[in-house]
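Quick one:
INPUT:
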């Protein structure tokens, strides 16, 4: 079981996070000021730290700097308030692995936590999960997220994505996609492929009109990334 240390002086925030993280089988410990947080990180050896920026005694930056010196591999997610967004850059410069701005959704935080754990231990039974920027696709559980928000993809869209990801960087013809995804039996028009790709782009691309993931190869088909 992975252990997460929350260093945050807002009691309600700690209670909410603890509840949500424990529900996902994380072992959660908390500290309510920077100094205690730092000490607990050293003694309790958490696998990840969620660190608030504004804290009594030692602030989040100081704690982060100290921890990165002591335990360079310890993943740290900084919590920042909206008004402090300008300071985020500084937060990252001192070695935080990620940051999240309050108010945030629990799902978004969970996605960031998962991403960090994956970065720390790649290939640990998570091969079915693929990440492209802020897009995450889990082919085992058939769920997908973008920017930490769940995407509603149809089974056909998962198959399309799987097909693209398996042949990342290769050009796949419309006919090839039809054959692979729709099968020979129901041989629809190649425009069906275009319609489905357009729908999929609206879900996974930042700007569907300027796709960065599923690229059109004019007159031939498509290519992933
Ligand atoms: Ca605070």
């Amino acid at each position: 079981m992975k252990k997460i240390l929350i260093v945050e002086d807002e009691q309600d925030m700690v209670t909410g996070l603890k509840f949500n993280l424990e529900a996902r089988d994380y072992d959660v410990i908390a500290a309510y000021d920077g100094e205690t947080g730092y000490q607990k990180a050293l003694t309790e050896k958490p696998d990840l730290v969620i660190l608030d920026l504004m804290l009594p005694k030692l602030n989040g930056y100081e704690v982060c700097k100290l921890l990165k010196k002591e335990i360079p591999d310890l993943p740290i997610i900084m919590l920042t308030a909206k008004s402090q967004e300008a300071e985020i850059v500084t937060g990252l410069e001192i070695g935080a692995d990620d940051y999240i701005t309050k108010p945030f959704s629990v799902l978004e935080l969970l996605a960031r936590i998962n991403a960090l754990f994956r970065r720390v231990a790649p290939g640990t039974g998570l091969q079915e999960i693929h990440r492209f920027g802020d897009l995450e696709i889990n082919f085992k559980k058939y769920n997908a997220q973008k920017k930490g928000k769940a995407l509603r993809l149809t089974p056909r869209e998962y198959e399309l994505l799987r097909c693209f990801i398996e042949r990342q960087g290769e050009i796949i013809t419309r006919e090839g996609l039809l054959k692979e995804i729709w099968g020979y039996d129901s041989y629809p028009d190649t425009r069906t492929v275009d319609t489905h790709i357009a729908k999929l782009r609206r879900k996974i691309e930042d700007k569907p009109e300027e796709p960065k993931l599923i690229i059109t190869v004019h007159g031939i088909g498509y290519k992933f990334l």
